[in-house]
């Protein structure tokens, strides 16, 4: 060994040094990637586990960036003690599996997010939890699906891709009467449009990946129960099964939230304008937007959401899949990508993506039988630019 190498004492390299501090402080939330947290003594660690002292112990159980993000979403939802998870599906899983057990029954909306339905039908079934689906625009259909062993109803307020609006007030009353928990996946609506806890929900779920984070660069979820005991059960399940989010992703999502209201309002205004332009276009057969008078649930949308009719628009071109394919190819500026809530507009074709597993009959039952149907997640672009992009695509139909 050379003298130089002998002079480097390894212990000085591995020993962590405290960050230099001064009288000033950072303006931006620091990212804290530490997996473990050192406690000053065994007594203190006992006190932490017993809740007499606060402090993190191990990142799977919680870390500062997740806490900051959770408290911000709590504030938006009017909730307390929510949990951030590693994805929206992790949040759905924690809500369902943290609370229910063998012998229980859950009712899902018939247009729930595809993976939520799959979790219920395929995975919960293996653990002895039965699932029924019901049409959430019809509170009586939901009531009819209730059994003595029904524990929970899981719904989305605005469905994908037909943007039907659930009868939330009616179903909340049904759930209350039956003593069944009402869980709402509020991803599409967001607390800017509707806050489930103010309308009888017991559990709120988000795919933070979508509008809340808003930049298609993080995968995260959020779940909160009104009841502290239920929240504890959800938390324990999530920590045991490792549904933990990464500090860096929490930090990115927190950054996204600062502009969420601005992004939401702009995207919604764009969606309303685009829906009207599409409805008047000769190559478009039908437009579905809850803010338009020709939407099947217009009255309910008005009562439930007021002017907050969201950034999602669905439309059907006058043509089949081949024509839809030409439209996608003719407008490469509009990413053909099966997600939603990005700052930029994205286009999806449910028949070939989110709903490809369904038969044409099953799609017809849900009201979107055409292979010429698109779903648009409208972004925050200049509206003139957006309209000209769609006109360019539609010219190829
Ligand atoms: C995307 C989505 C999910 C799943 O969220 P991930 O973050 O992709 O796991 C759940 N529900 C709805 C309504 C969604 O749009």
From TrEMBL:
Entry keyword set: Pyridoxal phosphate, Transferase
GO cellular component: cytoplasm
GO biological process: transsulfuration
Residue(s) carrying N6-(pyridoxal phosphate)lysine: 210
Pfam families according to UniProt: Cys_Met_Meta_PP (PF01053)
Superkingdom of this protein's organism: Bacteria
GO MF annotation, one: O-acetylhomoserine aminocarboxypropyltransferase activity
Necessary cofactors: pyridoxal 5'-phosphate
Record-listed E.C. numbers: 2.5.1.49
Coiled-coil residues: none
Family: Belongs to the trans-sulfuration enzymes family.
Name of the protein this chain belongs to: O-acetylhomoserine sulfhydrylase
